[in-house]
Amino acid sequence: MRRTKEQAAETRQTILQAAEALFLQRGYETCSLDEIAAAAGVSRGAVHFHFHNKLGLLFAIRDEMILPMQQLARSLTADAALAPLEAFGDLAAATFAELQGDAAKKRLLALLKVIDVNGSPDDVGNMRYFRQQIRSSLMDICEAAQRSDTLARPWTARSAALALYAMLDGLITEWLMEEVELALVPEGAEVVRAFLTSLTMPGRDMPVAERAA
């Protein structure tokens, strides 16, 4: 039974990797489930079993994008020696750098924004749950900063997490819409670092790039 579960997980990951490669290479709209199944070396039924449809694949790819932040939140809970805001600043800078250089991934994120606004009630609900997951991870990170006494007053973990979420969502949205000239690197990363500095108790837990400046 255990091996069967492992095989199912491996098959799911293989399908997901094949779908992401095709979406990034050719675009979400032009790929069919048959092509994804062929690229993954599985049947169309296997794709349906694991993801139901093409949108399910897109949502799964989206979910993997926030895995590093969720892992960071868990590690901060387990290891009190880590510097929460510094670690998040490093992660945000690395994520922005990756997105900035990937036009195909930018198109996928823009598509998700459209689904968030114009999708079916189920799709919009799925996107709402995704945002809740992001806010929950940010809350865990800010609570870790508060526990380590590195969160500047009068910030609370909740107010800091809400402000961080609003700032990140705003930066990503402006970058996707291209209505203003905004690059995630260096401008977006600089905004994040400056804001994290305002959250940090003086002399404590400063993001690496700020300390080196």
TrEMBL record:
DNA-binding residues (ranges): 32-51
Key words of the record: DNA-binding, Repressor, Transcription, Transcription regulation
Stretches assigned to the HTH tetR-type domain: 9-69
Coiled coil: none
Domain of life of the native organism: Bacteria
GO molecular function: DNA-binding transcription factor activity; transcription cis-regulatory region binding
Protein name: HTH tetR-type domain-containing protein
Organism name: Bosea vaviloviae
